[in-house]
Amino acid sequence: MAEHRSMQRAALLDAARSLLSEGGTEALTFPALAERTGLARSSVYEYFRSRAAVVEELCEVDFPVWAADVSAAMRRADSAEGKVEAYVRQQLALVGDRRHRAVVAISASELDAGAREKIRAAHGGLVAMIVEALAEMGHAEPRLAAMLLQGVVDAAVRRIELGAAEDPSVITEAAVSMALRGVRG
Q1: What is the 3-state secondary structure (H, E, C) of the chain?
Q2: Contact at 8 Å (CB) between 39 and 15?
Q3: 27 and 49 in contact (C-beta within 8 Å)?
Q4: Can you give the pLDDT at residue 56?
Q5: Residue 103: predicted pLDDT
Q6: What pLDDT sits at residue 100?
Q7: Which residues, 6+ apart, have CB-to-CB distance to 32 below 8 Å?
Q8: Is the separation of the CB atoms in 15 and 36 below 8 Å?
Q9: pLDDT along the chain (185 residues), means of 10
Q10: On the chain, which terminus has fewer CB atoms closer than 10 Å, C or N?
Q11: pTM, to two decimals
Q12: Phi and psi at residue 165, to the nearest 5°
């Protein structure tokens, strides 16, 4: 029974990822989850009490995978600047991944304070990854520099997600260039 529930929960999360990446938060409804998984709508409520609970669990499951991908890319770099470049490039490379698209589609206003805090903490962990490299580069305020660097990444993510006129590779190169010039400065 526990294995069946675990499989159903995983199917619901997978359906939620698809719905969020296809249509944003408006698409994530319990009737849509039920339809995608073949469950009765009332059964969805046995697994999740609200849309916010679905989103919160998606973040708990998917964000560590995304952060591990970024961390692995940074470990392959052989210099502090290389780590900064890997940090930016890997996050932007993940934009097309539906785990990432689902997390980006989430509207923080729909989440309760606890869920928003968990997401902030997860993002803080991502920013913390780059602080050491920035300190190596001689930044007097590496945490501040890391927060500003993440702002460049976030802006590039939004630009790619919007389907901007520029090719995603052009946005990525501009973000990497801006990030490296900024952290050297």
Answers
A1: CHHHHHHHHHHHHHHHHHHHHHHCHHHCCHHHHHHHHCCCHHHHHHHCCCHHHHHHHHHHHHHHHHHHHHHHHHHHCCCHHHHHHHHHHHHHHHHHCHHHHHHHHCCHHHCCHHHHHHHHHHHHHHHHHHHHHHHHCCCCCHHHHHHHHHHHHHHHHHHHHCCCCCCHHHHHHHHHHHHHHHHHC
A2: no
A3: no
A4: 81
A5: 62
A6: 64
A7: 15, 19
A8: yes
A9: 87 90 82 94 92 83 88 96 96 78 56 71 83 93 94 89 82 95 79
A10: N
A11: 0.78
A12: -60, -30
Q: How far is CA 154 from CA 32, 43, 59, 128, in A?
A: 29, 36, 17, 15
Please give the structure tokens belonging to residue 21: 């990446």
Candidates 107, 147, 149, 144; CA nearest to 124 is 147
- In this prediction, residue 102 carries a pLDDT of 61
Residues with Cβ within 8 Å of residue 45, at least 6 apart in sequence: 30
Q: Which amino acid is present at 149?
A: L
**Residue with structure tokens 């919007």?**
162
Amino acid, res. 138: G
